[in-house]
Structure formats: structure tokens, C-alpha cells
Amino acid sequence: MINTVIGTKVKMTQAFYENKRVPVSIVSVAPNVVSQVLDKKKHGYWGLQIAAGNKKAKNTSKSLQGHLKKSQTPDSKLQTFPRYLKEVRLNEEPEEKVGDVIQVQDIFSEGDMVQVTGISKGKGFAGGVKRWGFAGGPRTHGQSDRHRAPGSIGQGTDPGRVHKGKKMAGRMGGEKVTVKNLKVLFVDSGKNEIHLSGPVPGSPKSLLIIKKLIKAEKENFLDKPKEEAK
After folding, report:
1. Which residues pair with 149 in a beta bridge?
2. Which tens digits make up the pLDDT trace of 96-107?
3. Same domain as 80, residue 125
4. Residue 75: what pLDDT?
């Protein structure tokens, strides 16, 4: 059974869940179409390739058009092709066939734990204080220009160089980020949306990969008992 779908971020809001006000991320999960079934004998593992979104035919390569036409995923009326493709590995032979449509309510239900993968927002070039949380320099003893300086970056004699991977100023964000142990608060089958507890990476309309977890790696903040006021 497939446990992963392609979605897009809608927005972030808040809601009351079990008498708690919690941050909520709304994710749109349009119907995903199975575009290819990966056979273990041919590929070495079981899997499915799923497609979602829309893209004009002129923006789709001829080779990809031929691949998708075999799976009957193009919209014949609009002459559009899927925008996103994602391969999902499975532990056993899938029940789904090429052309099957996967709805959000077929996989997720209220109370499920999921992990969400996406590309974080790009922040541009950032200094060490913003990018890595450096403390900066002192504001006293005449050091008026060292408030956000990185400080020493290495030794003078041995090894006499800056080590690779040193935390320094540079481009921040725009990286692949996975957020785990988010709880599904609500599944809206009419709008093809799911409401998740907590933030998800990326800006609105950005691509997200939502995977259902069999068991959460750690306790979700909604599962923790409310501390009694002292």
C-alpha cells in the first residue's frame, strides 16, 4: 500500500484542537495519478511513480511526453501534462495499476503521524549570527564594530588553515528540509486538503512530499499532557 503523496503548501494558520490552540499548516493534495509501476524483477525493487499538478505540453520534453502518454496521465481536453513526478519505493508488490487515481482520504485520516519534505525558503546571503546563531562580540572595551563579527575561524600555526565545513557567512535557506512527527488534524476530502500540526518547509504553492509514518520517532507536542499550573 502506498504511503506517500505529492502536495503543495497553501498557507499557515491556527486552530483549536482538543481545547488547545495549535499552529496548523494547510496542505493541498490534488489527486495523484500512478504513472508507472516499478517491477522488482526489472528494477530490483517494488515501487510506484506518481504524478501531480499541471504543465503545458510545450514546457514538457518529448521523451517525457511519450512516457506519460503510455500511462494516460495527460489531460486530453487541456493538453496538459503533470508538473511533478515522484518515485515511491514499496516493500511488496503494489495493488495500484497505471492510471489509478490516489485520493488524499485513501491514505490519511485524522490522528495519523506524517513527515513532510520540501525546499526551505531562501534567505539570501546571511551572516554568522543569523545563519548559525553566533553570539557575536562584546559591546564594551572599545569594540564598537564587533557586535555581529564571527570571531576567530582557525589557528595561526597548526594546522594554519580553515577547516572544511566551518560555519561562516553564506547563502541561507533554499535547502531540502524534512519535518517529522506532524499530526494530521483534519482531512478535507471536498477540497483535497489536509491540516497538519506545526509548520512545514517552503513558501505557499511550493512542492511538498507527505509520507505517512508507521510509528512516530518521538512524541508530538499535542500528545504531551498539559502541565498543571503551580
Report:
1. none
2. 888 888 999 989
3. no
4. 64
Tell me the pLDDT tens digit for each residue of 58-102: 899 999 888 888 766 666 555 788 899 999 999 888 888 888 889
Whole-angstrom distance, CA of residue 82 vs CA of residue 65: 10
CA 72 – CA 67 distance, rounded (Å) = 9
What Å distances lie between residue 134 and 24, 142, 151, 164, CA to CA? 30, 20, 9, 18
Residue 123 burial (CB count, 10 A): 12
Whole-prediction pTM value? Answer: 0.82
State the cell numbers at 201.
518547509
Residue 201 has pLDDT above 90, yes or no: yes
Q: Print the domain residue range for 90.
A: 32-102
Rounded CA-CA distance 74/146 in Å is 58
* Domain shared by 19 and 88, yes or no: no
Please, what's the b/e burial string for 7-36 (b: 16 or more CB within 10 A of its CB; e: otherwise)?
bbbbeeeeeebeeeebebbbbbbbebbbbb
Residue 184 zone, left/alpha/beta (φ > 0; ψ -120 to 50; rest): beta
Which of 53, 17, 14, 46 lies closest to 209, judged by CA? Answer: 53
Instruction: Name the helix (H) or strand (E) containing 132.
Output: helix 128-132
* 145 domain-assigned: no
Return the CATH number at 72.
Answer: 3.30.160.810
The reply to whether 25 and 57 lie within a common domain is: no
Do 27 and 77 belong to one domain? no
